[in-house]
Amino acid sequence: MSRKYIKIFGFSHSYFSGHHTWPIVGNLPELCKKRLTFLWIESIIQKLATDIGCIRLGNVLVTVVKSLELALEFLVKKDNVFLSRPLTMATEYVSRGFLGMAVSPWGSHSNKDCSVVNLRFALRHYSVNILRGILFSRRFFGRGGGDEEAEHLDAVFTILRCMYVFTVSDYLPSLRIIDVAGHQKTIKDAMSVFNKYHDPIIEKRIEQRRNGKKHEPENLLDVMITLKDERGRPLLSPDEIKAQCTVS
């Protein structure tokens, strides 16, 4: 382990490096043993009494900043570094290969207790019902309040929970085939639910538009279908529309 100094925005700051790093994987083994990643990182920073530290996760060097003032300088003066969203396994699957703007990295697509439990249950249903209404002009799938609605609701919050969760394969993509911790299977299962309920509606709506059976937009899905580029061609492909309906 060594302590070095780097110069940031005209000031010198000490940081640690070489914290028991392993060949190829870096500090990933230590993180995999910890349930809460940020607590392990925080303990290292406190132990070494430093404001800025550097750990290696696979081939990625991760800089950890403890100082509020220094963090503010990063965000204000180097905002372009944080402009793009991180590339993760979950966001790639959810957006069908980064076709949806909400989670895509910077680029072409981004330009284009009992009472408590009951309240949480109600708010979950209410918020998702609103989204269904905006996107598809419907409050629920199936008969309402049944298995279909519960399945779709669970899929929505599974994706939200897993979107930016720490996973080893985001730092070592070659490990995706192993699916460490099962995150990839969780995302795939949730996306299969989205595909089951969303895709038939989207495909039917696109076909109706092509056949002239629908004219005035009735929901956000219709708006996305009718968008045209400067040459009068559809601005969004069917897959891009499906991705937008997933991550909107």
From TrEMBL:
Transmembrane segments: none annotated. InterPro entries: Cyt_P450, Cyt_P450_sf. Its cofactor is heme. Signal peptide: none annotated. GO terms for molecular function: heme binding; iron ion binding; monooxygenase activity; oxidoreductase activity, acting on paired donors, with incorporation or reduction of molecular oxygen. Keywords: Heme, Iron, Metal-binding, Monooxygenase, Oxidoreductase. It comes from the Eukaryota. It holds the Pfam family p450. Belongs to the cytochrome P450 family. This is Uncharacterized protein. It comes from Coffea canephora. The lineage of its organism: Eukaryota, Viridiplantae, Streptophyta, Embryophyta, Tracheophyta.
